[in-house]
Amino acid sequence: MLNRFPPRRQCYICRRRFRRFYPYRDGMKSITPFLLKLGVVGSDVINFGCPFCHSSDRERHLFLYFDRLRLWDGVRDAAVLHFAPEPHLSWRIKSCGPRQYVTADLYPDHLHARDHAVERQDVTDIAAPADTFDLLICNHVLEHVTDDRRALSEVHRVLKPGGLAVLQTPYSTVLTRSIEDPGIATDRLRLEVYGQEDHVRLYGADFLDRIQAVGLRLRLRRHRDVSTDAEAAYYGMNPVEDLILVEKPTIPRGPYAS
Ligand SMILES: [Zn+2]
């Protein structure tokens, strides 16, 4: 007998099938008209949470990127630093057998870490020697950090030459310069202009300049390079959210570099 209501969605992480993901807050209503006009790329607010494992769209999307770009292979025997660690991603990283795996957050008590300790770490002052990590994951963190240039410098410092970092953040496809104004100081204004009460800016195209200014090299990958829009809809991912992947160059760029 035919199923009259076949599942139309599948969670990329737990592989359960169902009819729909649950939305972020009020779905599309949680994106203010201001942010809509600015073409903000961030979470898929409609196809957001998995009803079974509660993964978010951006966590599922990282799994897909890591699969398609074979990034898990590099985790084996690697030193990994993971800020604001997502539970499924943590589990998957550990299953790869990293040599060192540090999970960190500015407010670790707010996280419901299940089976590992999350260190208290400030991304603008990372307690680790230079050239320590092969992989650093900083997924939707920088939009919360007041001194993001210092955070990016720290990312560069603690990465080994040739090491990679994932630096996902919401951004506007319209703005050339990020909006960050000390006058935007109330929850209501931050929600209206930045998209969330605890964000301190809305990035524009200059985010990429800030990354490169500290010496990191961009290795951006687009969803459409590794997947399709149909697959994004099926798995509940935002097809216009690129993977903001960066690398610490093995040879520092000097004044005479081409
Ligand atoms: Zn799931």
Structure description:
- The protein has a single domain (about 10-245), classed as Rossmann fold (3-Layer(aba) Sandwich).
- The strands form 3 sheets. A 7-stranded mixed β-sheet has the order 6-5-4-7-8-11-10, sandwiched between helices. A two-stranded antiparallel ribbon has the order 1-2.
- It has about 260 residues and is of the alpha/beta class.
- The chain is globular, with a radius of gyration of 19 Å.
- β1 and β2 form a beta hairpin.
- The chain has 8 helices and 11 strands.
- The model has no long low-confidence stretch (mean pLDDT about 90).
- The longest helix is centred in the first third of the chain and has 12 residues, at about 55-70.
- Helix content is about 25%, strand content about 15%.
- The site of zinc ion has 8 residues, from loops.
- Assign the CATH topology: Rossmann fold
Bound small molecules, deduplicated: zinc ion
CATH class: Alpha Beta
Q: How many helix segments?
A: 8
* Main sheet strand line-up: 6-5-4-7-8-11-10
Report the strand count. 11
**How far is the N terminus from the C terminus?**
66 Å
Largest sheet: 7 strands, mixed
Q: Report the principal-axis shape.
A: globular
The overall number of domains is 1
CATH homologous superfamily annotation: Vaccinia Virus protein VP39
Strand content: 15-25%
Structural class call reads alpha/beta
